[in-house]
Amino acid sequence: MRPLVLGLAGATLLLAVGVGVTRLSASAAPAARGDIALAGEMTQGGWARGTAPLGTIALTLDDKPVALAPDRSFFLAFDRDAGTAARVVAKFADGGTVVRALTISPRAWRIERIPLGPKPGTPPSEAYRIRREGELKQINAARAIDSGSQGWRQRFIWPAKGRLSGVFGSQRIYNGVPGSYHSGTDIATGGSGTPFAAPADGVVILAAASPFSLEGNLLMIDHGMGLNSAFLHCSQILVKQGEAVKQGQIIGRIGATGRATGPHLHWSIKWRDSRLDPILFTGPMQ
Asked: Which residues does residue 261 pair with via DSSP β-bridges, in sequence order?
């Protein structure tokens, strides 16, 4: 078994975990078919970049299609609640396949158990329900955009520096009933108005014209291959929908709009329907 080699936070790591045996179908000749090259974070909330063998016409992850770039490179990821096994399959025109089995390591999430139920609240009004439905339609439409950006190939940077006031995957359980887990990373900085930058190249797919009920002023960037970033609670958005942005470019200012208790940047990353941990893209904050 060959180890995986990847860079993380300036260091080179060798990973032997998460790699299964590559199997060739009876119609595939080992001399003609290469392996599926793959490296990254093989864990819940993690990701991988790879290259498909020469001649691959289609690639799947657990039977779901994975887009291939012209150079046969690809990106895929694993949801916060992903199972411990996954399978990547490269298919060829003659019906042959190359299969790579993966082991996805589980994470020890920060869990807070509350012996009481959540505080009762007033049921949302019909006006709020209609408003929220419209907001979610905008978000889902934005995530469906394929901008062709190549940002997914880059090593991401932190959009801002500060105290991490909320970590990805943390969850409260109220009297045995799980609440929603935290879907991103919260960065608390010097206060409202602090600028933040694009973590990787991308295209603006949503720049809220007015504050959303929960997210406030919401900014979303597509990095290509189904990978996108969302930035919540902005005090100001400095880019426009459809605009291409570069890694490190200032794109907004941190705020406390929407449902927020104070100024901070909530940064979340998704690949398709999978929610991912930003720190696995950047490494620990320096």
From this structure: none
Residue 100 pairs in a beta bridge with 22, 88
66: containing domain? 4-103
What pLDDT, in 10s, does the model give residues 189-231? 888 999 999 999 999 999 999 999 999 999 999 999 999 999 9
Domain count, the chain: 2
The CATH number for 29's domain is 2.60.40
For residues 121 and 215, membership in a common domain is answered with yes
- 247, 260 in Cβ contact below 8 A? no
Instruction: List the Cα angle 263/221/102 in 5-degree steps.
Output: 105
Question: For residue 238, which of 215, 223, 222, 221 has the smallest C-alpha distance?
Answer: 221
Gap between the Cα atoms of 12 and 155, Å rounded: 13
Q: 140 pLDDT exceeds 50?
A: yes
Q: Are 132 and 76 found together in one domain?
A: no
pTM of the predicted model, to two decimals? 0.86
Domain boundary among 103, 124, 147: 103
For residue 43, the tally of other CB atoms under 10 A from its CB is 20
- Is 126 a residue whose pLDDT tops 50? yes
Residue 18 zone, left/alpha/beta (φ > 0; ψ -120 to 50; rest): left
Summarised one tens digit per residue, pLDDT across range 228-267 is 999 999 999 999 999 999 999 999 999 999 999 899 999 9
| Cα 240 from Cα 206, distance rounded (Å) | 8
Task: Kindly report the number of other CB atoms within 10 A of residue 23's CB atom.
Answer: 13
